[in-house]
Amino acid sequence: MAYDDVFQRAVEQLHAERRYRVFADLERRVGDFPRATWHAPEGPRDVVVWCSNDYLGMGQHPKVLAALTETATRVGAGAGGTRNIAGTNHPLVLLEQELADLHGKEAGLVFTSGYVSNEASISTIARLLPNCLILSDALNHASMIAGMRGSGCARKVFRHNDLDDLERLLQEAGRERPKIIAFESVYSMDGDVAPIAGICDLAERYNAMTYLDEVHAVGMYGPRGGGIAEREGVMHRVDIIEGTLAKGFGVIGGYVTASRPVIDAIRSYAPGFIFTTAMPPAIAAAARASVEHLKNSQVERDRHQRQSMQTKIALAARGLPVMPSETHIVPVLVGCPEKAKAATDMLLSEHGIYIQPINYPTVPRGTERLRISPSPAHDDALIRDLARALDAVWSKLDLPRRYEAIAAE
Ligand SMILES: *Cc1c(COP(=O)(O)O)cnc(C)c1O
C-alpha cells in the first residue's frame, strides 16, 4: 500500500471541488489592530484583517496583556498537569468563579477550548441521563455534533430556529423521557439569533434540559457581556450555558456554567476534561482580566455594534449583496466557491484586505460567502476603504449584486 498516495488523492479531491484551503501567514501587531503583517510568498506586507473572531480586539487589551505577563513571570508557563494531578492553579479557580458569576450560575468549568467544552460536556451529560434524546438545531456547530455522537444517545434534528418543529419532536418523545435541547444563541455564518425564551418555554412544558452555546455572543451582548440570554433576561431559564474565551474575550479556552451537580458530574466523568493538561495559569489570568473588564465596560460593545451597522450600511449602499443579519456578523453572498476564492485573493493582493472565503461544508453549497467581522477598531475610514475595494472586486469579477437572485433554498 502506497500510503502517501491515498492522502494525496484525498487532498486532490478538495482541489477538484475548489475547496482546498490555504492559510494566510499573519503576524498581528499590538497597538495596530486590525492591521497585521502578512508573510506573503513574495515577502511581508501590511494588511487589514476583516475576518477575525477577536471581535473586540481584547487579544491585545493592556489589562489582558498585563495579567498574562505578570502571571507567567510569577508562576511560569505551563499548568504542570491535569486538573486532578497538580494542574488546578489558583488563577483557574478564580476564572471559573468569574464565569459562573457572569452567567448567574452556581458553578463553572474551564476547558482548553470551546470545541472541547462542547464535545466533553454534551457527551457526558447525555450519557449520564438514562435513555436520553438530544434535540439539536439543524445548524449547530461541529463541536456540539461531536459531543452528541460521542454520547451514543439518540438524536433528532429540528429545523433551524423553528419552535413548531421542535415542539413536534418534544411531543413525540413525551414528558417522561429525558431530553436535552442543544442550540446556539448567535449563529455565526448567518448572524441570526435563536428564540431563546420560546425554547425555554417549550423545555419547561415538556420537561427538557437546555444547553446553549453562546460562543459568538459572550463579551459582546448583555449589560455585562453574558450573551444574548443575558440581554433577553432569560439566563436563569437556561440550564447549561457554554462559551469560549477565544473570540469576544480574545484569549483561548472554553467553559460551561450550570448548577453545581451538573458541573460536578462533568468534572468527574468527562474524559475530555480529566485526561488532558489544564489551561496554563497565565492564560487563565488573562482570560479573567478580559471577562472582568467587559463586565464593567460597555464602550467596546456599543462601538462594536455601531461599526457593524456602519459596515452593513456602507456595503449595501454600493449594491453589494449583504445577507440579512441581526448581529455583528456581516455575510456577503457570492454563491460559488471559485468566485469566492477569486474575490478574496484579489482583495488581498490588490487592496491589502484579508477576508477568508467561507465554503462548503461550513455553509451549504451555493451559499459560499465572505463573512466580514467588523470590530470597534475598524474605524469609518477603514469601512469606506472596504466598501470601495469590494465594489471594485465585484465589478471586475462580475459578481451578482442581488441577494435574492442567487440565494439557495
Ligand atoms: C468557534 C466555535 C466553537 C469552538 O470554540 P473554540 O474556543 O474556538 O474552540 C464552539 N461553538 C461555536 C458555535 C463556534 O463558532
Automatic annotation (TrEMBL):
UniProt pathway: Porphyrin-containing compound metabolism; protoporphyrin-IX biosynthesis; 5-aminolevulinate from glycine: step 1/1
Keyword hit for Disulfide bond: no
Sequence ranges assigned to domain Aminotransferase class I/classII large in this UniProt record: 46-390
CDD domains tied to this protein: KBL_like
CC cofactor: pyridoxal 5'-phosphate
Enzyme Commission (EC) number: 2.3.1.37
Protein's GO biological process: protoporphyrinogen IX biosynthetic process
N-terminal signal peptide: none
The entry's keywords: Acyltransferase, Heme biosynthesis, Pyridoxal phosphate, Transferase
One GO MF term attached to the UniProt entry: pyridoxal phosphate binding
Top-tier EC class: transferase
Listed Gene3D superfamilies: Aspartate Aminotransferase, domain 1, Type I PLP-dependent aspartate aminotransferase-like (Major domain)
Reactions the enzyme catalyzes: succinyl-CoA + glycine + H(+) = 5-aminolevulinate + CO2 + CoA
Subunit comment: Homodimer.
Cross-referenced NCBIfam families: 5aminolev_synth
Family note: Belongs to the class-II pyridoxal-phosphate-dependent aminotransferase family.
Protein name (record): 5-aminolevulinate synthase
